[in-house]
Amino acid sequence: MATVTLENLRKSYGPTEVIHGVDIDIADGEFIVIVGPSGCGKSTLLRMVAGLERVSAGEVRIDGTRVNDVEPMDRNIAMVFQNYALYPHMSVFENMAYGLKIAGTPKPEIAERVSDAARLLQLEDYLGRRPRELSGGQRQRVAMGRAIVRKPAVFLFDEPLSNLDAKLRVQMRLEIKQLQRRLGVTALYVTHDQVEAMTLADRMVVMNAGVADQIGAPLEVYARPQTAFVAGFIGSPPTNFVAAQLLRPGAPDGARLGVRPEHVRVVSPGEGALQARVMYAEPLGAETLVHLKLADDALFTLRQDGTAPVPEEGAEIGLAWDDDAQMLFGPDDRRLQG
Amino acid sequence: MEKRVTFQGVLLPLLLVLPQIVVTAVFFFYPAGQAIWQSLFIPDPFGLSMRFVGLGNFEFLLSDPYYRASFVTTAIFSSLVTVVSMGVALYLAVLADRLIKGSGTYRTLLIWPYAVAPAVAGVLWLFMFNTRVGVVTWYLGLLGYDWNHVLNEGEAMGLVVVASAWGRISYNFLFFLAGLQAIPKSVIEAAAIDGARFWTRFRTIVFPLLSPTTFFLLVVNVVYAFFETFGVIHTITSGGPQQATTILVYKVFADGFVGQDLGSSAAQSVILLVVVSVLTVIQFKYIERRVHY
Amino acid sequence: MTTPADPLAAEVPPKKPKAQPDGMVEKRGAGLWLTHLGLILGVLFIFFPIWLAFVASTVTQPEIVRPPMPLWPGDRFFENYGKALTSGINAPVALMLFNSAVMALGIALGKIVISLLSAFAIVYFRFPGRRVFFWLIFLTLMLPVEVRIVPTYEVAASFGMLNSYSGLIFPLIASATATFLFRQFFLTVPDELAEAARIDGARPMRFFWDILLPMSRTNIAALFVILFIYGWNQYLWPLLITTDPSMNTIVMGIKQMFPSGDDVADWPVIMATSILAMVPPIIVVISMQRLFIRGLVESEK
C-alpha cells in the first residue's frame, strides 16, 4: 500500500510535448480514475507511472521515493492491460506465477498465493487452461490475478474493460471495485468511458490534450466543472453551450454559457430564457431526450422525466432553468463563475 | 514498423548481433567486395601478380560472343523453366482447388519433389534420356526418333528445362493452391450466379485475384532458374553441347574454377550481383505493396 | 453451400437459363472424374522419374544396359543398396549421408540460432549501429552463394576450411533470410507481452527464453524444414570445397560416381544412391507437411 505523487510530469517525443505538466497526489488506498478522449495522453501518463515510458521532466514518486529511473519490476506495481497481455503458451497458473517465479519465490508460496488469487477470482477450475481456451471475462480475471499475486502497492489499469461486451463490462466493473476495496490497494485506472470513471473513482482526473483539466470526486466534477471541456465530457447527454452574449449582454466576446440537459425545463412559448423548436424526441422509458433547434439554428438537448408530456415535433417552446444551474465559461474555456 | 517497448542496454544487443555480423562479414561482404575488386584486375598467367585493367574485364565480357551467347541462353532457359513449371503447377492447382474433398491428398502426393535436390533431379532425367540406356530414348527410338542430347543443342536445352521445371512444380503448386484457396468462395459463387462459366470465371475473376501470387512466383522462379539449377546443368550436360546450356552461373564456375580466369569470373559475378539486386528490388517493391493491402 | 433455393440466387434474375446444374462452383459427375484424371496425370508425371530410379536400383546392371529396362522392381534391392551404403564407388554412401546430415543440420540449426539472436536484438533494442546493421542484413537477402563463389572459396581456403564441416556450413549460413523472417514475426508479437514481462521482472534474456522462444516454436520448426532441405540439397558449394571423397555430401557425390570417359556407369548403385539422397528430405517434408507449408507460404510471401 502506498501513495503515488506525480509532480509537474511531462512527456515529449522529440520536440513534441504530449503531456504538459501534470500534478496529482494519490492517497494510500485511493481509487483514482484518469478519464479523457483518446489521444489525450492518459495512457502515456499511466505508462510513465509503470516505468514503461521514460519521464521527460518532473517526478513520479511512489511512497515518497522518486522512481523515475527505477525499472518497472522494482516499483512495486502491477498492471492490467487492455488486451490482457497473457502469455499465450503458458497455462493460467503459469501466467499468474511467472512474476513470482522470476522473483525467486519458493514454490509452495507461489502455489499458495496463486490459489488464493484464483479463489478470489473464481478461476480455480481453469488453472490448467491456456488463455485461448478462456472467455473474454475469464482472461480479464487472469490478468487481474496476475496483478494480485504479486501483492503490489499500486494497481495500474489500462482500459481493462474495453474489450468486453457491455453486459460483462458492468459486471467486471463491480468486481474490480470490490476487489480494490477488499485489498485496500492504491489504484490508478485509465478509461475513456465516463460511466466507468464516475462509478469506480474515489477521485477522477479529467484529461484533455495532455493537461489534467480537473481533479476531484466524481459528483464534484459533475456539479462544478472547471472548464468547458470537462462540462462537455462528463455527463450524458453532454452539456448544451450557447453564446453568453445571447443571454447576458455585456459578457466578454467568445464566452459561453453551459446548461446540462437535465436542468432545463419546458415552459410556454415566449417565456423562459430561450426559444426553441422541437425537432424530434427520443422517449427512452425512464426519461425522454428532446432535441431542439434554437433561433440561430444551434442544437440544444433537454432531458425530462419519462412521465412528463412529450412535446410535439415542430412545436415552439420556451426553455428555462435555475440560475445556479448555468455555468459561464470565459473565452479561454475556463469557468468564470461558480 | 517499430516496437513501442524496448529494453535498455547497448552491450547486450551488440553481443547478440555479433555472431551474425562476423559470419556475414567474413563469408558475405568480404567475398562480395573481393569479387568487385578482382573484377578490375587481370592476373598474370602464373598467378603471381595482378594487373589493374579498370573496367577492361567488363568491356571484354560484353564484347565476348560466348558471354553474350550465355546471356541469351540464360534468358531462354529461365523463361522456359518459369513458364513450364508455373503453367503445370497452375493447371494442377486449379484442378485440385475444384475438389471439395481430396485436394489434401493430392497436395501430399505433389508436394514432395520439393525435397528432391536439383542435382538429383538432373540424374533422374539423365537416366531416362540417357543415349545408351535411357528408357525414354529407347521408346523414342521405336517411334523412329533418334534422341541425342549429347550432340543436339535443342534437345539438350529441352532436357535441362524439363528437369529443372519438374523439381519446381511442387513449390509453385503449393503457392497457387494457397492463393486459390484464399479467394473468397462467395466471389466465385457470385460470378457463377451472374452466369459466368468456369473458363470465364477463371479469366475474369480468379486469375486477376491470383496475380499477387503469380507475380511473386515469377520473380522467385526466375531467381531459381538463374542460380539453383546449376546442379541440373552440371549433372546433365555440363554446359554443352557447344555451350548450348551454359547459363551465366555455370559460366562463372567454368571460367573461375575450370578455366582459372579469375578476373573474368569475378566480373561475371559482379554482373550477376547486379542482376540479382534488380530482381531483389522488384521483389521488395512487391512486398512493400503487399504491406499496404 | 449455394443451392437453387439460395435466397440470394432468387433475387438475381438469371441472365440465361443454366444448361446444367453444375454451372455452380464445384464439379460433379463427368467433370469431377476429368478433374481427378488431370490430377492423376500430374501425379504420374511427378512420380515417373522417381519410380524408374527406384526400379533401376533393384535390378542388375545387365538388365539396365540392355534396353529397354524393366518397369517393375527386381529382386536386387538389398544387394544394390547394401553395396552403395557400405562401399559405394568413391566413398561409402553411408558416409556421404552422414556428411550431408551434418551439413544440413549445421546450416539449419546454426542459421536459426544466430538469426533468432540478431532478430531479437534489432527488434527489441535501440543500440548504436542498429540501422546500419539492419540494412547490411537486407543486402544479403537473396544473394545466393553462387554469385560470390570464387572469393568465398578463397576465404574458406585461407581459413583451412577445405574438406571440413565448418567449410561446408559457415559460408551457407551467411545470409539473413531467417533474420528477416524472425524480425517479421517478432514485430507481430503484441508490445504488451514484453511490457507485462518487464513488470513481472523479466530481464531481456529471460523474456527471450521464457516468452519469445516458446511463442516462436512453429516458426522455428517451419524454418528448420526449409533450411534443412536447403542445406541438404546444396550442390555447387560442396563440389568446390570437398575434394576428398570421404567429405563428399550425397547430393554432389552422385555425379562423382559417373565414370569419366566411355566406361559404363554402375547404374543400379547410382540409382540406389539417388533414392537414398531423396529419402531424408522427403521424410522431413512429409512428416512436417503442415508446418512446412505454413512456413513456406507465410514466410516467403
TrEMBL record, chain A:
Protein name: sn-glycerol-3-phosphate ABC transporter ATP-binding protein UgpC
Biological process (GO), any one: glycerophosphodiester transmembrane transport
NCBIfam families, A to Z: PRK11650.1
Organism field: Halovulum marinum
Family that this chain belongs to: Belongs to the ABC transporter superfamily.
Domain called ABC transporter: residue spans: 4-234
Keyword Acyltransferase part of the UniProt annotation: no
One GO MF term attached to the UniProt entry: ATP binding
Keywords, sorted A to Z: ATP-binding, Cell inner membrane, Cell membrane, Membrane, Nucleotide-binding, Sugar transport, Translocase, Transport
InterPro entries: AAA+_ATPase, ABC_transporter-like_ATP-bd, ABC_transporter-like_CS, ABC_transpr_MalK-like, ABC_transpr_MalK/UgpC-like, Mo/tungstate-bd_C_term_dom, NA-bd_OB-fold, P-loop_NTPase
GO CC term (a single one): ATP-binding cassette (ABC) transporter complex, substrate-binding subunit-containing
From TrEMBL, chain B:
GO biological process: transmembrane transport
Source organism per UniProt: Halovulum marinum
Cited InterPro entries: MetI-like, MetI-like_sf, UgpAE/MalFG_permease
Membrane-spanning ranges: 12-30, 71-96, 108-128, 156-183, 204-227, 266-287
Name used for this protein in its record: sn-glycerol-3-phosphate transport system permease protein UgpA
GO cellular component terms given for this protein: plasma membrane
ABC transmembrane type-1 domain ranges (all copies): 71-283
Record gene name: ugpA
Subunit and partners: The complex is composed of two ATP-binding proteins (UgpC), two transmembrane proteins (UgpA and UgpE) and a solute-binding protein (UgpB).
Pfam families, per database record: BPD_transp_1
Function: Part of the ABC transporter complex UgpBAEC involved in sn-glycerol-3-phosphate (G3P) import. Probably responsible for the translocation of the substrate across the membrane.
Family under the similarity heading: Belongs to the binding-protein-dependent transport system permease family.
Taxonomic superkingdom: Bacteria
Gene3D superfamilies according to UniProt: MetI-like
Cell compartments where the protein resides: Cell inner membrane; Cell membrane
The keyword RNA-binding is annotated on this UniProt entry: no
